[in-house]
Write a structure and sequence with these properties.
Oligomer: heterodimer
Helix content of chain A: 10-25%
Structural class of chain B: alpha/beta
Strand content of chain B: 25-35%
Strand order of the largest sheet of chain B: 1-4-5-6-7-10-11-12
CATH architecture of chain B: Alpha-Beta Barrel
Radius of gyration of chain B: 17 Å
CATH class of chain B: Alpha Beta
Largest sheet of chain A: 8 strands, mixed
Distance between the termini of chain B: 17 Å
Order of helices and strands of chain A: EHEHEHHEHEEEEEEEEEEH
Shape of chain A: globular
Distance between the termini of chain A: 12 Å
Number of helices of chain A: 6
Number of helices of chain B: 10
Strand order of the largest sheet of chain A: 2-1-3-4-14-13-12-9
Largest sheet of chain B: 8 strands, parallel, barrel
Strand content of chain A: 25-35%
CATH topology of chain B: TIM Barrel
CATH class of chain A: Alpha Beta
Helix content of chain B: 25-40%
Largest interface: A-B, 37 and 32 residues
Amino acid sequence: MITLIDYNAGNLTSVRRALTHLGIPSQVSADPETVRRADKIIFPGVGAAGAAMTTLRQRGLDSALKEAFAAGTPILGICIGCQIILDYSEEDDTECLGLLPGKTVKFRPETSISPKNPLSPSTNPLLKIPHMGWNAVSVLQPHPLLRHLRSGDEFYYVHSYYPQPADPAHTYAQTEYGIPFPAAIGKDNLFAVQFHAEKSGAVGLRLLENFAQW
Amino acid sequence: MLSKRIISCLDVRDGKLAKSVKFVDTKDIGDPVEKAREYYQQGLDELVFYDITASNEKRGIMLDVVSRVAEQVFIPFSVGGGLRTVEDCASVLLAGAEKVNVNSAAVQRPQLIREASQAFGAQAVVLSMDVLRVEKSVQIPSGYEIVIHGGRTRTGLDALQWAQRGEEWGAGELVINSIDADGTQQGYELALTRLIAEAVSIPVIASGGGGKPEHLYDVLTEGKADAALVASMLHYGEYTVAEIKDYLTARGLKVRKQ
């Protein structure tokens, strides 16, 4: 049974529908006790870091998540759930959960076109923010949740900020958008993806299946 | 880099699929949920459902369609048609859509864009605009005017200025639908699409006139669109999503392959 953490995140029902479609049992909970006892946790998210952390704290879910992580419960974060597991987010100047060392930073269109960037300004005068749409994910280190990925597989993104773990060893996959940025990060029993696996067609569903088997 | 998106629009009336040609007559061509699933399996990137149900009492049918789509189709989709308030928008998002698509109601009450954007985030608000080519004038300096009610009512709004205001008020994407090109299958209105795409910094989806894969190539390159909307060429089985994408790939565009 996978427990989906309910903290008013927009994509909670989409993730739930995807799990139901795959025949994976799940429950939605805002109760810290249920989260502490969960077999597996999905930490979804659409929205802003500040509001997300406020709701988590109000419901006591921040400490429940930290305890579940320390106890070895497999956790999958999605989108905002991939950002606020780090120490800090530039969005709303927010102190976050600190499950993984690092911070969440904003895309800066003015700095993303550099001499090192293969995209010439003539073909790419301005990167639009948010980064919204389908983009390829390349695997940097193998991980059980990414084992089905082929080079060039694309996932659906909608975000203006991206996760930046302090230790490069915690980045498992990356995507190019002007600059390469971490697309999948993790450590021990924690794994998190910036893209919306629940809206990324067959490759996204497969990642959710992999999590159910992890 | 982001792939160029191929989006299909399904017009839904009383829960059944319809395709408007020149916005006058529509003919029923099937079940929207079944069609959505078929396109999803073919590798379509995104869907738009446009509710053209005339009577208010049948609006609930659309929410049922939305929730059945969300249970079977795992790509983003938006819903438009008849959304006048934040509550209307919330109901389709709760039923499972990622985005709302506002058109006439936003022209009549532009505050709707801001309210929806503040409530759900800019990424969830698509401003769809029906555009008619007109003589350039003081009031319509771009030579493109916004029309509403499926093209029957002129508004006196300049399309370029409206697009920029829409972005400023919190729309996350724009659909630029050319009334002149719609249903013709003779190609998108490239000059209009490019004019707006170069003036805003949010994604622009070209709509109206797609009949052949090369039309998509043209609007995604010369027209500077981020995505192209296709209807008849898919609905009537003239092309599959894969055929369109293979063509675009062969011509060097980045599109998602599955």
